[in-house]
Automatic annotation (TrEMBL):
Region (Disordered): 1-66
CYTH domain ranges (all copies): 78-229
Organism: Kitasatospora phosalacinea
Entry protein name: CYTH domain-containing protein
Cross-referenced InterPro entries: CYTH-like_dom_sf (IPR033469), CYTH_domain (IPR023577)
Length: 248
């Protein structure tokens, strides 16, 4: 059973968890724009990066980790491996372990994201500033890039929110291990996405999506958070129509 599948904690950070159901190859098929529709045959799994090598230190104070697909992990940055899926429904309440309301602002002219996440059961809030550096074009498999998180106090978050402009999106994230399921609001209402994160390429390749997945969106840049924050309802309607999905 794979042990490198990660489950998102209450603040949205992934933590290690065992994957359910073992590790058979997924049954996804490739279609236009790098999309994968569930139920179609896929001749082979996602390509695997070349040998992992040691990269140079990012600075004199920080030891660099291994390089993956040209990305070098450091003391603070880590490689993000993630697969993303389009769901046909919101998960049943009994399958949800934690629910939180998330507001993300994608700061104009940067690769920074300012996040407020509130647990719906306790009201506890977490604040983060995140940098996401995308993987080079053509990077195979589930590697999305490098991610670095900085946790903030409520006051720090408020100051940055007032100073840093950018589009926002709001969603409810449901923890349904090993998936994080996002139910979107506003112009994106009706969109339900699921994400799974992984520690290594093998577990990413062999992960089997649960029932209810319409399509895999891992390679479709229209469904990244930064792009969705800039997507209006008509654009979303057109993107979903390519998967045979009509907005309510």
């Amino acid at each position: 059973m794979p042990t490198g599948v990660l489950v998102r904690a209450a603040d949205g950070e992934p933590v290690r968890a065992a994957a359910p159901g073992g590790g058979g190859a997924g049954t996804t098929g490739e279609s236009a724009r790098g999309k994968h529709v569930m139920g179609e045959h896929q001749a082979s799994g996602p390509a695997v990066c070349g040998p992992v090598t040691s990269g140079p230190a990012a600075s004199g104070e920080e030891s660099a980790g291994p390089a993956v697909c040209g990305l070098t992990e450091g003391k603070y940055a880590r490689v993000e491996r993630e697969r993303r899926f389009l769901l046909d429904r919101v998960p049943a309440p009994g399958s949800v372990t934690v629910a939180r309301r998330i507001t993300d602002r994608y700061v104009d002219g940067t690769r920074l994201r300012l996040r407020r996440a509130e647990r719906l059961d306790t009201g506890e809030c977490t604040y983060k500033l995140t940098q996401k550096l995308p993987a080079p074009p053509g990077t195979p498999g589930a590697v999305q890039g490098l991610i670095t998180n900085l946790y903030l106090s409520e006051e720090e978050y408020a100051r940055l929110l007032a100073a840093l402009p950018g589009p926002e999106l709001t969603k409810t994230r449901l923890s349904v291990p090993p998936l994080g399921v996002d139910v979107f609001e506003g112009p994106l209402r009706g969109l339900v996405l699921a994400e799974a994160e992984f520690e290594n390429a093998e577990d990413a390749e062999t992960f089997v999506p649960p029932p209810g997945c319409i399509a895999e969106l891992t390679a479709d840049q229209h469904f990244t958070g930064g792009q969705l924050a800039r997507t209006d309802r008509e654009e979303l309607r057109g993107d979903l129509a390519e998967y045979g999905v009509a907005l309510p």
